[in-house]
C-alpha cells in the first residue's frame, strides 16, 4: 500500500528508496523550490526506471523450509526508517481533524515514514480509507481492526474526503475501504457518493480499490456508475492459498467475477488487481493467477512482497528477490496487460502506475472529444 516518490534527476534515483504506495498525494508547503507538484511528477523517472533498478546479491536465507518455525530476517531491500519529522506530524493532525482513516496506519505500511515525512523533496503522501478503520473481515495478512458490527458510517465522510483531496490539488487519487458486510449494500453507495463528490468538484481521475460486496452485482454496478475511472479489486493470492490467507468469505473465483462484472457494466473502464508474493505459492500457481486475471479482462496488475504486520499474522514464507519480480513483470506484460508493476515494495497503487494510467485516460478522453465532440 504504497507509492513512489520520483526525484528530479534520475542520476540520483535509488530504486530501493520507495514511498508508501496506495496513497493520496499532495505537495508539502515545506518544499524549497517553485516547481508545481505536477511538474515534479512529470520530471521524475518513470515506471521503467524503477523496475530497471538492481540490488546487490543477498547471501542470507530467503525461504523457510517445510516445518520450520523460525522467522526470516528482513533482506536489505525491505528495510525502512522509523517515521519522524514535521511533515509526518502535520499530515497525521490534518487527517485526524477531518476524522479520516488511512490505510497507511491501519495496515502498518512499512513505507509510512518516508511517505508522510516527505523526504528531501517535500512531497508527502497519505491514503484515505473509507467507511472507518474497522473491517468486518479478518484476513490473516491484514492488521486492520475487525468487528462483526463496526461503528455506523459517518455521513459526512464523502464530503470531508472530497474537501481534503480538492485542497491538495491532485489530478489522480486512489480511494480504498474496509469491508462492511454488516451493511445491506456493503457500503457501495457510500463509496459511490464519495466518488460523485470528487467528480462534482473537478475533473480529477479516481481509482477505487473496493471490496467484493459478497459478489453482489448491484453493488458492483453502483460503483461503476459513479463514473470512477479505475475499478480495482485485489485477488491477493493464488487460489490454493486463498482460504488460509483471506477471510473465508473472500473467495478466489468470486473476486474474479467481481472484476469481470465491472468490465461488463462498462467495457471501457480500466480494471486492476494485485497479488502478494512470499506466502508459499509456487511459480505455476502465480502463472495461473496472472492468466486468470487477464482472462477476465483485468488491464493493470501489481505484484509485491507480503510483509508480516505483527506476530499474530501469517509468517513470510519467502522473500522474493527483485530479479524474480522483474520476471513476473515480463511474464504478465507478454499477456497483454496495459501496465504491470512488480517489485518487493510495490503495493496496489503508486505514482508510476497512476501517472501511466492518467495518460491513458487523457488519451481516451481526447479521442472521444475528437470523434464525438463530447466527453
UniProtKB/TrEMBL annotation:
Any matching Pfam family: LIAS_N
GO CC aspect terms: mitochondrion
UniProt pathway: Protein modification; protein lipoylation via endogenous pathway; protein N(6)-(lipoyl)lysine from octanoyl-[acyl-carrier-protein]: step 2/2
Positions bound to [4Fe-4S] cluster 2: 135, 139, 142
A GO biological process held by the record: protein lipoylation
Enzyme nomenclature, EC number: 2.8.1.8
Main location (coarse class): mitochondrion
PANTHER family in alphabetical order: LIPOYL SYNTHASE, LIPOYL SYNTHASE, MITOCHONDRIAL
Protein name: Lipoyl synthase, mitochondrial
Amino acid at each position: 500500500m504504497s507509492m513512489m516518490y520520483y526525484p528530479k534527476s534520475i542520476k540520483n534515483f535509488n530504486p530501493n528508496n520507495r514511498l508508501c504506495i496506495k496513497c493520496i498525494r499532495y505537495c508539502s508547503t515545506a518544499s524549497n523550490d517553485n516547481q508545481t507538484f505536477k511538474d515534479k511528477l512529470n520530471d521524475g523517472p518513470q515506471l521503467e526506471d524503477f523496475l530497471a533498478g538492481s540490488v546487490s546479491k543477498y547471501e542470507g536465507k530467503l525461504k523457510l523450509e517445510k516445518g520450520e518455525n523460525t522467522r526470516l530476517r528482513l533482506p536489505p531491500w525491505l528495510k525502512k526508517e522509523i517515521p519522524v519529522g514535521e511533515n509526518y506530524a502535520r499530515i497525521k493532525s490534518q487527517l485526524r481533524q477531518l476524522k479520516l482513516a488511512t490505510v497507511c496506519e491501519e495496515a502498518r505500511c512499512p513505507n509510512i515514514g518516508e511517505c508522510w515525512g516527505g523526504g528531501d523533496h517535500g512531497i508527502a503522501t497519505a491514503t484515505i480509507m473509507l467507511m472507518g478503520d474497522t473491517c468486518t473481515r479478518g484476513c490473516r495478512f491484514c492488521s486492520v481492526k475487525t468487528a462483526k458490527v463496526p461503528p455506523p458510517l459517518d455521513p459526512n465522510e464523502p464530503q470531508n474526503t472530497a474537501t481534503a483531496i480538492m485542497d491538495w490539488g491532485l489530478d489522480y487519487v486512489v480511494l480504498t475501504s474496509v469491508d462492511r458486510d454488516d451493511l445491506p449494500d456493503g457500503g457501495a453507495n457510500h463509496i459511490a457518493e464519495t466518488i460523485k463528490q470528487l467528480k462534482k468538484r473537478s475533473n480529477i481521475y479516481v481509482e477505487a480499490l473496493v471490496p467484493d460486496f459478497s459478489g453482489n452485482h448491484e453493488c458492483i454496478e453502483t460503483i461503476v456508475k459513479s463514473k470512477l475511472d479505475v475499478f480495482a479489486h485485489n485477488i491477493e493470492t493464488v487460489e490454493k492459498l486463498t482460504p488460509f490467507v483471506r477471510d473465508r468469505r473472500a473467495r478466489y473465483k468470486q473476486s474474479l467475477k467481481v472484476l469481470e462484472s465491472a468490465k461488463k457494466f462498462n467495457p471501457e473502464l480500466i480494471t486492476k488487481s494485485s497479488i502478494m508474493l512470499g506466502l508459499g505459492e509456487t511459480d505455476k500457481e502465480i502463472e495461473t493467477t496472472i492468466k486468470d486475471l487477464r482472462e477476465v479482462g483485468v488491464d493493470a496488475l501489481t505484484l509485491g512482497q507480503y510483509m508480516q504486520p505483527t506476530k499474530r499474522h501469517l509468517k513470510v514464507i519467502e522473500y522474493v528477490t527483485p530479479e524474480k519480480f522483474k520476471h513476473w513483470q515480463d511474464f504478465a506484460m507478454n499477456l497483454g496487460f496495459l501496465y504491470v508493476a512488480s517489485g518487493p515494495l510495490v503495493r496496489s497503487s503508486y505514482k508510476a502506475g497512476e501517472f501511466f494510467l492518467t495518460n491513458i485516460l487523457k488519451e481516451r478522453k481526447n479521442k472521444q472529444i475528437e470523434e464525438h465532440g463530447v466527453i
